Amino acid sequence: METQRASISLGRWSLWLLLLGLVLPSASAQGLSYREAVLRAVDQLNDGSTEANLYRLLELDPPPKDVEDQGARTPASFTVKETVCPKTSQQPPEQCDFKENGLVKQCVGTVSLDRSDDQSDINCNELQSVRAKRPRPPKPRRPHRPRPRPLPWFPPRFPGKR
């Protein structure tokens, strides 16, 4: 009879632990930080890019202040820059140096802070680069020449009349 009570007690504890495990999220199921979600979006950008080199996060704009739901899509804004690492290398972009005069892109969209949702909706546009053509200086203007003034009109003088 004693073993039967121990068995029932053990069964209750197992049930409680199971329910507790379902209610509390595990450490691996916790959401991503804003930075981690953006880095994941940069990886997706590199995967879908047709360009030769990888891009790396250059600047991360601050996250919105009203992010409450870890599963919701979060607005994101960041800047990436071209690195020296070719896309064919299996090197993480964080280990690559930025390419001198590399392309810089401003990216905006949404990222998910949910670890299980790896989709992001990001659009990137190339910023004006340093290597772009410099505008030509304006052509020098010709100096202003005033128009000649007409001579004042005086009535003709006839000899003998005053």
UniProtKB/TrEMBL annotation:
Q: Which PROSITE patterns match?
A: CATHELICIDINS_2
**Chain residue ranges for the region called Disordered:** 114-162
Please give the superkingdom of this protein's source. Answer: Eukaryota
Biological process annotations from GO: antimicrobial humoral immune response mediated by antimicrobial peptide; defense response to Gram-negative bacterium; defense response to Gram-positive bacterium; innate immune response
Gene Ontology, cellular component aspect: extracellular space
The name this protein goes by in its record: Uncharacterized protein
**Keyword annotations from UniProtKB, A to Z:** Antibiotic, Antimicrobial, Disulfide bond, Secreted, Signal
Q: What are the Pro residues biased-composition ranges? A: 149-162
This protein's record includes keyword Cytoplasm: no
Signal peptide coordinates: 1-29
Gene Ontology molecular function, alphabetical? lipopolysaccharide binding
- What is the originating organism of this protein? Moschus moschiferus
Q: What does the sequence similarity comment in the record state about its family?
A: Belongs to the cathelicidin family.
> Which segments show compositional bias classed as Basic residues?
131-148
Which coarse location class describes where this protein primarily resides? secreted
Q: Name one Pfam family in it.
A: Cathelicidins
Q: Which InterPro entries match?
A: Cathelicidin-like, Cathelicidin_CS, Cystatin_sf
Kindly give the Gene3D superfamilies that the UniProt entry links to this protein. 3.10.450.10
